[in-house]
Amino acid sequence: MDIELFKKEAHALVEWIADYYREIEKYPVKSQVKPKEIFNQLPVSPPQKSEAIPAIMEDFQKIIMPGITHWQSPNFFAYFPANSSYPSVLAEMLTAALGAQCMIWETSPAAAELEEKVMNWLKQMMGLPESWYGVIQDTASSATLCAILSAREKATNYETNNNGFSQNNFRVYGSTQTHSSIDKAVKIAGIGKNNLIKVAVDENLALDPDALEKAIKTDLLNGKKPLCVIATIGTTGTTAIDPIKEIAAVCKKYDIWLHVDAAFAGTALILPEMHYMADGLDMVDSYVFNPHKWMFTNFDCSAYYVKDKETLIRTFEIMPEYLKTAVDSQVNNYRDWGIALGRRFRALKLWFVIRSFGVDGIRERIRNHIKMAQELVKKMKEHGSFEILAPVPLNVICFRFKPKNMSDENELNKLNETLLKQLNASGKIYMTHTKIDDKYTIRMVIGQTYVLQKHVDTAWELIQETAKNLKK
Q1: What pLDDT is attached to residue 244?
Q2: Taking each helix axis from N to C terminus, what angle separates 180-188 and 140-155, rounded to the nearest 10 degrees?
Q3: Residue ranges of domains in the chain
Q4: Separation between Cα atoms, residue 401 and residue 387, nearest integer Å
Q5: Alpha-carbon distance 219 to 227, whole Å?
Q6: Residues 6+ apart with CB under 8 A from 387
Q7: How far apart are CA 324 and CA 423, in angstroms?
Q8: Looking at the domain covering 100-344, what would its CATH class be?
């Protein structure tokens, strides 16, 4: 392919992308294919000769597209959104075209300095502590692993990096609602899953600070070393909000690293009325939220902040001769701020999004998502045959269908599992589930970039109609 052919095919591809977004609601939201259906349509061996882009695109539409779940559909109400937006897509095109490897300042000065600036912008937008230092990670999972590793190294005076564990008696704490990435992180960090203590939650499914302190005291009596607490602003199952200030007081009392996971819900801090969630953040050691979830920025883009950047850098820095430069003492070499050496130019898309939407534009959409969720909760409660199973502080609704004549929990679980399967099989909407106190719970997340009230209304009508037919 020469440059002229590239230009021609690129124009055609942009037309396809625009048509895709224009017609995205025509696709079934959740892919309807069966296991191996895509795999079996693909050739056993790669082509020996060059193939034309139109032929590749034809197979893309015929084979690949049926196996795509359309996360950018306004009828996507599952998991948490992995949002995109038009300005973010444009920035990703530039990122791909530049192909920059942004591991140190010298390999792309603009990438390092733009990253530093947009992370400062986010602090202002969210009302985060001005003294924090920020870096873009790929995911909250990586950011949380960075936090646990930093806590480990600080506690061992950086000796674990040098000599490995001489004795591992560390404990890490999180609530029973803590994300599964914490389980993975303690395994990778060498602390061990059995040393992750799941602390009880209160009636709002938030971590109980008294139960946390009790677990810490018990471990101290048994010769264990409390290392790190993971608090959450917006748990994955129900968006429960842990009481950060009270947890921070416990951590300060026992000199324990406190990391806050706000992967999804952290974006809501752009709203002044949601700042109550951040009470106590000035007392934490590290914090993460994902613009790639609810701030209209393509995956992957995770904003990680630390109170003490020296601990972070000492945990991860490595200085082979071939990476040394004359300006190392004057700049941020972000390869030392996380796990990976290689780094994409992630700051560019965040810059495009913030400038294109503006802070007011982002606020308007986030506020509208929360409003739509709160109004739907009212409708569900008024209906009489739907039950809200968890508080709804943001835009995630945990509910189930509960006919008035049905009280058996096993039957209700089966009924709601069937309801969700039928809704997703329709191709018209996509939702997922969790379990709360062993109750099968349907989760509806209203947070897709281009979702409108009409999409929520249509989804509610479909939920009611499908549930009504189940009763017959």
Answers
A1: 96
A2: 40
A3: 100-344
A4: 6
A5: 11
A6: 399, 400, 401, 402
A7: 56
A8: alpha beta
